[in-house]
Amino acid sequence: MTRYLVLLPAPEAQWAALPPEEHEKGMRAHDRFNRELAGGGHTVVAAGPLTPSARAISLRPDGRGGTTITEGPFTESVEQIAGFYLIDSDDPDGLVRCCAQLASSGDFIELRALASEDDNPSDQAG
Question: Which ranges of the chain would DSSP assign to H, the alpha helix?
C-alpha cells in the first residue's frame, strides 16, 4: 500500500470571492470524489481544508543556528495550498483517474506519493 498526498492549490482571493452556489458546486464535486475513492478501494486517511495562507507561520533557519519565524506562507503566490487528502492506495492509475475527475470540475491538484524508506534521497531532490 502506498500513501499519497493530494494537494489542492487554489487562488485564494478568487476562491473567497466566488458566490455561494459555486462553493456548493465544489462541495458536490468533493462528495463525488470521496465516493469514487471509496468505490475504487482507495482509503482516505485524513482530509480537510486549510486556513488561509495569510494565517500561516513560516519557520526558516537563520544561518546562525537559530530560527526565523514569520507570519505568512513561505512564498508569495497567487495559488496557495487550500486543502489536502492523505490517501492509501494500491492502484495509482485508479487514483489518478479519481483526481482527474475532480480536476475536471475546477479543482487544481498536485498528487504526490510519500517517500518510503527504500527511496533514494537523491531521487527526492527533483
Answer: 12-16, 20-39, 92-104, 121-124
Cα 12 from chain centre = 14
67 phi/psi in degrees, rounded to 5? -135, 140
- Please state whether 106 falls in left (phi above 0), alpha (psi between -120 and 50) or beta: left
Least confident of 14-18, 98-102, 104-108: 14-18
Range name among 61-65, 73-77, 108-112 with the lowest pLDDT average: 73-77
Cβ atoms of 15 and 27 closer than 8 Å: no
Q: Which residues contact 26 (CB under 8 A, 6 or more apart)?
A: 105, 106, 107
- The DSSP bridge pattern shows strands 79-89 and 67-71 to be unpaired
Are 48 and 83 in contact, with CB atoms under 8 Å apart?
Answer: yes
